[in-house]
Amino acid sequence: MPQQQGDNIDFLAHNRASWDKQASEQREWSRPVSSDTIAAAKAGQWQVHLTPQPLPSAWLGDVKGKHILCLASAGGQQAPVLAAAGAHVTVFDISDRQLEQDCMVAQRDGLELQTVQGDMRDLGAFADASFDIVFHPISNLYVPDVRPVWQECARVLKSGGALLASFYNPVVFIGDRDPAYAEQGLIRPRYRLPYSDVNDLDATQLAAKRERGEAMVFGHTLSDLLGGQLAAGFILADFYEDAAAHPRFLVDKYMPTFLATRALKRQDL
Fold first, then answer.
1. 239 and 212 in contact (C-beta within 8 Å)?
2. CA-CA distance, 2 to 266, in Å (whole number)?
3. In the structure, what pLDDT confidence band is assigned to residue 2 with cuts at 50, 70 and 90?
4. Which ranges constitute the DSSP H helices of 66-175?
5. Which of these, 77, 98, 113, 72, lies nearest to 17 by C-alpha position?
6. Residues 260, 149, 237, CA angle at the centre, nearest 5°?
């Protein structure tokens, strides 16, 4: 097979550095919650996010005493709130600097949580059936193969445990990103699914993205995003769509582009 232009790119190292940079700049998903937010959570008033809107309260229920894995979910936002609400929380993320944000909030506000650095496709740091809940906000677009993520989530969850996950509607990945089309109100399909920055961008676009330090992204099919959960041993229990709070693509103005699932590990596994 001919070598593709992105074959020599270590996307994992690049994405780790990209999120380290975002954390150092405290961008939107790297900005720790305030002490007031933690105090409110300790008093029973709290909410977390899988998508821009707050998560429906029934999706998590009472988290006191629950063992929760915040998967690829560092940044000092979700995990400290869940810990303050009484859960036993472990945060797993590729970025050390993102994990440092969670540690900072925990130390500042007297919380207990664990942090582990690694690739979301390999949760070998954890034993089988270690968690009651896996909380996985939109992040699997940073790996090219999502099915191993679902398989590892099923392995580390207890029987009947819940996987709460979010991801983009794959439609966001197929359009040409030339701003001239958006200015004309046109959505021009260009890329096929599954999508990969590494292999679908031309050399100039890819070099520019790497120079800007932006994370490499991958667009998965619904067969992998939803069917992959079913194949891993989950039963889909609930689902919702959400609109982008700050539209990035023209399609965001016409349809909700965030998808969220609540899936339960089958009792027979």
1. no
2. 42
3. very low
4. 78-84, 96-109, 147-156
5. 98
6. 35
